[in-house]
């Protein structure tokens, strides 16, 4: 079983687990005391630090890359925060962390303030704290953007004073200029591209591209790109935008080496983004690196789901497969191995172990016996305590990373997801078209190839948003957007809505 996933990353686009604050809390607080009783830690794990995949010396498995969001972090760097220790006191020589700026919190109306007024005390304080937090703890971090859909939610619009698309643009300019004028250079900044359709994405790009231009900002220019909104999920738009960047001189080696795709969960995109990365490296920037994140391993556990297998069917749908996990108090005294129990009890039809679940007992997950009281002094319906969640989150993280690496390995050996091949007329392969686009002698020729194959791009379903045959506008209905994320994350492969089972954690806040 692979335990050093860093060494198995090869030249693939890099998946970043989007670490939940709940998960980080276990690792951080255990360093300062017995947050988890030592008797509660399974025998196959040395300590709670075994769950810290950023720690190559003590982790059950090592993976050096991750994302952490200011939106659920303690961003006040002036005070101690034990729960943040996994982030604040990591070994930066052995790990790489991308900071999400918290624009989602603004868009949901959680970070209140008049973001259109650069002198608003609430907005100014939050803006300053985010930048200082990035400077202190991140290797790369995103500029604090205001997503264009903010004004569509009346509650968010009222809380932030973002009333129109143009308000989002103007407020983001305020944040970008603040970054420009106040950054100290301890981390590299990604310029975030937003837009809910091709037209608004093009407008946004024209508005903000200069922040990455060394000719205009020789000392403070931003260092790469983060793809949000339609830019993160629409292959047609993505290819056009990257061609623009190349020919605008904004994807230069040692200047703009990183491009991040926000919230990317479909397994086919693990190989799609590798194809793009390889082609851009070959013809334009040999250091170009694509990263992408999702919170699926953590969110799935919060909804009672566990990763149990990986599906890589040639000419079929690819995905990591999740199902409802074992949760029954009758297992609290069961000494069977976790894998044996879930298979023998037909809770799951198949289960692939991770370094976390290997040699773990089902009673390590189903911890509460009938009559046991939880931390708030009540008998809950679930057999899980809060550490049960942390253990299964760690397993899910390993499985998700393994699925992206295994997908790329099989893709290189000739297996092909259905989404990236078109056999209807002339046989088209995504990787061959990408090679053709980025090797073209001119921008005009690259764009001609992209437009010629617009029907092919439509069959490539987007991540989160159903771009492709099921296309919906990103600004159409955001309340449905989050539901779509959850449903896609539960199966990893299926577009159908799945029934989900939410398992409330009675001991702790899962995300706080």
Question: Could you tell me how far the N terminus lies from the C terminus, measured between alpha carbons in angstroms?
Answer: 33 Å
Please count the helical segments: 17
Strand content: 5-15%
Shape: globular
Count of separate structural domains = 2
Q: What is the chain-wise order of helices and strands?
A: EHEHEHHEHHEHEHEHEHEEHHHEEHHHH
Average predicted local confidence, pLDDT: 90
CATH class identity of the largest domain: Alpha Beta
Strand order of the largest sheet: 1-8-7-6-5-4-3-2
Most strands sheet: 8 strands, parallel
The structure class reads: alpha/beta
Which stretches of 5+ consecutive residues score pLDDT under 50? Answer: 465-512
Helix-residue proportion: 25-40%
Radius of gyration: 23 Å
CATH topology of the largest domain: TIM Barrel
Task: Please give the number of β-strands.
Answer: 12
CATH 2nd-level architecture of the largest domain: Alpha-Beta Barrel
Folded structure, characterized:
The chain has helices at 21-30, 85-88, 103-107, 121-137, 154-160, 165-182, 198-208, 235-247, 268-283, 296-302, 338-344, 362-365, 386-412, 430-439, 443-452, 454-458, 478-491; strands spanning 14-17, 65-69, 96-100, 140-142, 188-193, 224-227, 258-261, 289-294, 305-312, 318-324, 421-422, 428-429. The protein is α/β, with parallel strands linked by helices. It folds into two domains: 14-299, TIM Barrel, CATH 3.20.20; 417-491, no CATH class. The strands form three sheets. Strands 1-8-7-6-5-4-3-2 form an eight-stranded parallel sheet. Strand 9 and strand 10 (318-324) form a beta hairpin. Helix 8 (235-247) packs antiparallel against helix 15, helix 9 (268-283) runs parallel beside helix 14 (430-439) and helix 14 (430-439) runs antiparallel to helix 15 (443-452). Mean pLDDT is 90; it is low at 465-512.
